Amino acid sequence: MDASLECLREDADGCSGKGILGTKLSRAARETEALVSDLMVDQPLFWLLAASFVGFLLGKRLVRKN
Length: 66
Hints:
71% of the residues lie in helices and 0% in strands. The chain is mainly α. The radius of gyration is 21 Å and the shape is elongated. It starts with a helix and ends with a helix.
């Protein structure tokens, strides 16, 4: 396989065109995406409670008199 085609593969660790920082950022982005995906599927109650709490705080701030 051509070296330029190897960079297009999903595993960016073997790609010499990316620096160490680019590899680490790419890996961190993939891990963050996986974490958010897992939370959205596995813990909808957590997101519902967190959204309710944030909405309560925003509503309290908007309704509060000065």
